[in-house]
Amino acid sequence: MSLSGNQSSRKKATSRVAFFFWVVRRALPVFFALFLLAQSVLAGDWRVRVEAVLDGDTLILEGGERLRLRGIDAPEVAHEGRTGQYYGQESGRELSRLVAGRDIFLDRGELGRDRYGRLVGVARLGDGRVVNLAMIEHGAAFVYPHDSDKDTALNRRLLAAQAQAMARGEGFWPEVLRSSSAGRKYVGTRGSRRFHTMSCTLGRQVKDANRVYFSSLREAFSAGYAPARECTPWPPERGR
User: Fold this and answer.
1) Is 63:212 a contact under the CB 8 Å cutoff?
2) Which residues contact 60 (CB under 8 A, 6 or more apart)?
3) Which of 93, 94, 183, 200 is most buried, judged by most C-beta within 10 A?
C-alpha cells in the first residue's frame, strides 16, 4: 500500500475514534439523568399533597394517612378538653406555613408506623429542605429521638440545629429557658428519652439504672431529651 493510502487509513481511524468519543460525551448527561431517575424510583420517593396540619409535628396527607414527623416533638395544642401548652398554636401555624396545601416527598423505605398507626418519617419539600429540621431551626419544635428511631445521622443534625436555635433565641426558646422551671433539676429516662420534674410520680418509678439527672432545662434539652407529657416543665398556654 502506498504512503498516501496509509495516511488515508489512519485519518479514517482517527475520525472514527473522534466520532465515538463525541457520541459518548453527548450521551453521558442523558445516561446520568436516567441513572438518577432510576435511583429515585428505587429509593421509593412518594410525592403527596398535605391536606391539613394537626399540630407542630403531625400532618394529614392526601388520602387520609397521618404522618408524624420523625425525631421531633412539638408543644401540645388544646385537644379533647385538655389545655394546650405554650407555643402550641404558633408551632402548628409554622408547620402550616411550610407545608399546608403543598406537595412533600417521602422515602417509602424510610417510613415506619407508631403505636397509633400513624406513618412516621422525614418530609422534604420540592426545594430539598427537610421539614423536620426546619421546625427545629425555627424554634417551633424540639428534638425527640424515639427509641425506635435508628437514623442517628438525622438525630445528630436535629440536635445540632436545636443547639443553634437555643443560642439564637428562636421561637419558644427565650420564654422556656427563662421560665421559673428553667433552673430546676430533672430526671430523664434513658430508654424513652423523656425527662420529668423531680416530684413526678412517673419519674420516681424509673429504675435507677435507667435514670439520668439534669441540673436545668437547658442541660436536658441539650442532651436530646424531651419533656414528658405528664409532670412537664413546659409553660401553659397563654390566657388559660
Assistant:
1) no
2) 50, 51, 52, 53, 54, 66, 67
3) 94
Given a contact cutoff of 8 angstroms between Cβ atoms, the answer to whether 188 and 210 are in contact is no
Model confidence band, residue 24 (pLDDT cutoffs 50, 70, 90)? low
- pLDDT for res 13: 55
Other CB atoms within a 10 A radius of the CB of residue 144 amount to 22
CA dist 53 and 50 (Å) reads: 8
Strand 119-121 versus strand 66-69 pairing type = parallel
Domain span including residue 129: 44-172
How far apart CA 84 and CA 67 sit, in angstroms, is 21
Residues 6+ apart with CB under 8 A from 224: 143, 145, 155, 159, 162, 193
51 and 165 fall within a common domain: yes
